[in-house]
Amino acid sequence: MNMNANEPKPLNLAPECADLLADACAEIEQMTRIIGTMPADSSGNDLVLRGLAVRLHSLNSVIYWALLRDGTFDVAEASDTVHGPAQWKLAA
Q1: Spatial contact of 24 and 59, defined as CB atoms under 8 Å apart
Q2: What is the pLDDT of residues 18-69, one digit of tens each?
Q3: Vertex 28, ends 30 and 58: CA angle to 5°?
Q4: Does pLDDT of 91 surpass 60?
Q5: How far, in Å, CA of 31 to CA of 16, rounded?
Q6: pTM (predicted TM-score)
Q7: Residue 10 DSSP label
Q8: Rounded to whole angstroms, how far apart are CA atoms 23 and 78?
């Protein structure tokens, strides 16, 4: 399915996928609030930020799986959307 990136894509999510996406989005919202309210000079922030980064990575995997499970999205197209066009990528 080759669609314009700006066009909405139909989703046929299984109920368990929709639940996972809703939970992941709620958790990401909570984490952004934590990051936004953290004191800039507090000791231990590095560990907190690393922990949040690890959890965000896990949530990203959950979201990616839920969206790609039904076959609506092309993995390569999704990757290009996230990482930008090929000309934006660093040369290997």
Answers
A1: yes
A2: 888 888 889 998 888 888 888 877 777 888 888 888 888 888 888 877 777 7
A3: 130
A4: no
A5: 23
A6: 0.56
A7: -
A8: 21
Q: Angle 24-29-35 (CA atoms, 0-180°, nearest 5)?
A: 125
Residue-wise pLDDT tens digits, 2-22: 556 567 767 777 788 888 888
Q: Are 45 and 38 in contact (CB under 8 A)?
A: yes
* Cα(8)–Cα(72) distance, integer angstroms: 11
Among the residues of 1-92, which ranges form H helices?
15-37, 45-68, 75-83
**Rounded CA gap, 8 and 54, in Å?**
30
> pLDDT higher for 85 or 61?
61
Element at 42 (helix H, strand E): none
Q: Phi and psi of 59, rounded to 5°?
A: -65, -35
Retrieve residue 35's tokens.
Answer: 């990051």
